[in-house]
Design a protein that fits this description.
It comes from Triticum turgidum subsp. durum. This is ABC1 atypical kinase-like domain-containing protein. This protein is an alpha+beta fold and 116 residues long. The chain has one domain. It contains three helices and six strands. A hairpin with a 4-residue loop joins strand 4 and strand 5.
Length: 116
């Protein structure tokens, strides 16, 4: 539980996930927040703000994309791909930690629980 609140580890997890997204060519479909390392510590995590709506808000999702089901499939494909392509994976994926961003990409947030 203490590892989940160590923001240095969370920052490392976020950056690793973003590298995976870029390496696999998912950067047009998914995103994790950029970490401002120079402003982050074990107790403070400073990161890019993502603008969007949680995947639980179907009405808002419909206002941003024509096919909400495709958005969910994209999120699952990106996450499942990380299970086989990465040394560790986002272990707290649920609709509250997945956002549909205003630009149509899926935003992954809350990287405190990452498993190897």
């Amino acid at each position: 539980m203490l590892e989940e609140v160590d923001f240095r580890k969370e920052a490392v997890n976020m950056e690793a996930f973003q590298r995976y997204i870029e390496a696999m060519g998912f950067d047009r479909q998914a995103k994790s927040p950029f970490v401002y390392q120079h402003c982050s510590t074990k107790r403070v995590l400073t990161m890019e703000r993502l603008y969007g709506v949680p995947l639980t808000d179907l009405d808002s999702i419909r206002s941003l994309v024509p096919d909400p089901e495709l958005t969910l499939v994209t999120a699952l494909n990106v996450w499942f791909g990380s299970l086989i392509s990465c040394e560790s994976f986002h272990a707290d994926v649920h609709a509250g930690n997945l956002w549909l961003l205003r630009d149509g990409r899926v935003g992954f947030i809350d990287f405190g629980m990452f498993k190897t």
